[in-house]
Amino acid sequence: MSRTIIQNGTVVSLDPEIGTLEDADVLIEEGEIVDIGHGLSASNADVIDATDRIVIPGFVDSHIHLWQTQVRGIAGDWSLMGDYFDDMLGNIAGLYQPEDMYLGNLFGALEKLHTGTTTALDWSHAINTPEHAERAVDGLKDAGLRTLYAYGPPGNDAATWWFDSTEGHPDEAVRKLRDEKIVDDDLLSLGLALRGPDFTTEEVARSDLELARELGVVATIHMGAACWPSSIYGEDYQGFGAISDMLGPDVNIAHANHFSQEDIDHAVEQGVSFSATPEVEMQMAHGIPVTGKVLEAGGQPTWGVDVCSDISGDMGAQMRVGLQVQRMLDNQKILESDEEVTSVRLTCRDTLEMATIEGAKALGMEDEIGTLTPGKRADIVTIRTDDFTTAPSHSPIQTVVFQSDPSHIDTVLVDGEPVKRDGELRNPLVHEEFDRFVESGRRLIDEAGLDL
């Protein structure tokens, strides 16, 4: 039996029954957490010394486009309408070949692991052929990231797929990928990345959601970002109302910046999860992140990176940015009423939970991951507190949220397997495929003719 024991760490379980334990151990057998406590031991176990380490559940990124990894650093000055739709969805996406999908997903997933994310929802929408999806999944497999692979539309014909589209989701290709690539893989699950009524006719939006229900998978939908649908479709635009009677806990909505409070209330009541990607949304003029409205409705949003051609894959940044933006908005509301701000509504624990257990719930994985709980899979991160930029750690959760960065992530386990140890990724593909990865990015930018 494969055994690993993490010893002498500050265990931030995020499980309310277990809490936070000082100088504690986590025992893992066959990839499962079997015990958390003090003075644990196991024969023939791989010992991970967590002295001066905070031990937390791995981060869960609920919305990212991993295929864009090798064109990172091009979208830092882009807006959604002025650049992203034209240059990314209308140009670069169509140039991707299957090997580009493999390399983008491989290195995007490796970045996730390096920065402490053990699970991601990969919203994959450059599926120009079925082979593109197959190679994208190969990249995820080779990296070792737990992933909900959300199969999206092709990226080589934006006019057909993204503007009042009458084309339904690629049904046969999705089923083939599920049966041949995903169904027997413990780290991979299938989802559908749907365009929704912002980008398709109401009939297509509903039939795509029905397909997800038939397959029994999570449907993740881009909705309510920016204001462009009303400018294109005018008063006939249905938006959220087109599918509001079809919602449920198997639906994840990305962005939703312009949903009304009434719409959010209804969606939360139906069990819908919301992915906020605050850093990209603020830059690209999506609007104010949905965080406050979801909280007002009694729900909890999740965090995502979104466009990794723009920002880094570090989920810690989204925890901080998302938390502080909402605090600013809450504070400003009080200040404008000529009152003093005497407390904050959102806490550091709240934002850490949004990056872990709430993300797991959005992906339908809360019984497997998201907290350190016996019976769950061992997706675990240890963070150094013996560095001069993190010591002394008076509050481990605050240290994780505000003082740590990827340089402090010491060890990462996925399903009990160490994928990063002593600060270094263990996957040899980081070096073996690096030159091909860089060349792929250079070729794509060159073929796109972008003047950077």
What does this structure look like?
- The chain has helices spanning 80-95, 98-114, 130-143, 158-162, 171-182, 202-215, 228-233, 261-269, 278-283, 291-296, 315-336, 348-354, 357-362, 396-403, 429-432, 434-448; strands at 3-12, 20-29, 32-37, 46-49, 53-57, 59-64, 117-124, 146-151, 188-194, 218-223, 251-255, 273-276, 302-303, 380-384, 409-414, 417-421, 424-425.
- Strands 1, 2, 3, 4, 5, 14, 15, 16 and 17 form a 9-stranded mixed sheet that branches. The protein has an 8-stranded parallel sheet with strand order 6-7-8-9-10-11-12-13.
- It has 2 domains: 3-57 and 371-421, Urease, subunit C, domain 1, CATH 2.30.40.10; 59-358, Metal-dependent hydrolases (TIM Barrel), CATH 3.20.20.140.
- 37% of the residues lie in helices and 21% in strands.
- The mean pLDDT is 95.
- With 452 residues, the protein is α/β, with parallel strands linked by helices.
- Helix 1 (80-95) packs across helix 16 and helix 3 (130-143) runs parallel beside helix 5 (171-182).
Summarize the model shown.
Residues 54-419 form the Amidohydrolase-related domain. This protein has 16 helices and 17 strands.
Strands, helices and their partners?
Layout: E1 3-12, E2 20-29, E3 32-37, E4 46-49, E5 53-57, E6 59-64, H1 80-95, H2 98-114, E7 117-124, H3 130-143, E8 146-151, H4 158-162, H5 171-182, E9 188-194, H6 202-215, E10 218-223, H7 228-233, E11 251-255, H8 261-269, E12 273-276, H9 278-283, H10 291-296, E13 302-303, H11 315-336, H12 348-354, H13 357-362, E14 380-384, H14 396-403, E15 409-414, E16 417-421, E17 424-425, H15 429-432, H16 434-448
Parallel strand pairs: 1-4, 1-5, 6-7, 7-8, 8-9, 9-10, 10-11, 11-12, 12-13
Antiparallel strand pairs: 1-2, 2-3, 5-14, 14-15, 15-16, 16-17
Helix pairs in contact: 1-16, 2-3, 2-16, 3-5, 11-12, 12-14
